Amino acid sequence: MTVAEQLRVFNAICAVFFIPRPTISVSAWCEQNLRFNEPSNTGPFRIAGRDYIREPLNSWNEDDVTDVCVCWGSQTGKTGLIMGGAGFTVVSAPSRFIWVMPSANLGASFSFTRWIPMLRASEVTSVLIPTRSRRNEFKIAEQQIGGSIVGFVGSNSPGNLASNPARVVVLDEVDKFDQGGNGEADAVNLAEQRTKSFANPLRFKTSTPTWSTASSGEST
After folding, report:
1. Which one of 20, 118, 164, 179 counts the least CB within 10 Å of its CB?
2. pLDDT at residue 67 tops 80
C-alpha cells in the first residue's frame, strides 16, 4: 500500500469517530438508510404493520439502557430488529460486537445470506466496507467495517466467547444456546462477561417462546 493509500485509509477511519450521532430515532434512521437484499426480503427497512419493533429498536441509542430482552414468536421481526440496531451502531457509534448464535455454522450462514447483503445494499454501510488491500478484513465470520468489528460465534464455542472484549453483545435465540458444563459457564454468561470493561455496554438478547404454559401450570 502506498503512503497516499495509507493516508486515505487513516483519514477514513478517523472520520468515523467524528460522525455526529443522528438526532432522529434509530427506527426512523433504519427506515431512511437500510435496505435488505434477500431472496424473500428485498427493499427498504420497513416497520409499518410491526410498530412494536420501534421501542426495542430505539433502545440501541439510549445511553441508560444496557440490557434488552425480546421474547417474541417466530417470524415477528426479531432478527430484522437486531440487524437494524446493529447497522445503526456500526455507522453512528462504532463498536466491537460479539454476535452469538446457537452454532458457528448458523452464524456464518446468517452473516453470508442476510447480514452482509444488507451491508452491501445500504449505501450508508457499503461505503465503510474495506476494499483493495484491506478487503481481507471483511470476512464471513468477522467484518471490520468503518470503526467497528463484528464477529459471529457459536454458543458452543466457549473459547471464542471468552476471548475479545466487546461493547455490544448480541445473543440471538438464547433458548437454543449451549448450557455449559464440564466446568464451563453457560454461553450467555460467558458472552456477557465480555462487556465488563465498558461504561456503556449493550447486551441484546432474543428468544422464541418454547413453552405453551408457565411452570405453575397457568397459561403464559
Report:
1. 20
2. yes
